[in-house]
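Subgroup meeting minutes
Present: P.N., E.W., G.H.
Scribe: E.W.

1. P.N. recapped why we're keeping a running log of single-chain structure predictions: easier to compare across weeks, and new members can see raw inputs and outputs side by side.
2. G.H. added today's entry (125 aa).
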Amino acid sequence: MDHLMRNRVGIVQYPCPETTAMGLMRNPQGRQQYDNIFFRQHCKELLQVPMLMVREFLHNKYRLTCFIGLENSPTCGIHRGKHKGNRYQTESPNPVETPDPDDPVLMGIMAEILAEELAAASRVE
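Output recorded in log:
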């Protein structure tokens, strides 16, 4: 945060979709459990206000630089690599110290939806 503040980088944070859907006392789940129409709709609803802010920033000529995910999160993760099957036969990120540039970019459900929303907002402006 200090680095971002020193460089005058603003931040828009969205609520955690896992917490707002299931609370803090939840069992670990993989991307496959969250990849359903109900959870995707929940994510889209949570992104409504943050995306209005993004559109307002773009309208006022701000430059968007990135969005930051949470490592290994089935909803907010963004990383290169491959999925691995876990003991529940669901996919989990397989963390790699030095990813190969040819590895696919894997995203959690919310990160995937956010990427789509940001791409659409960028085309409009």
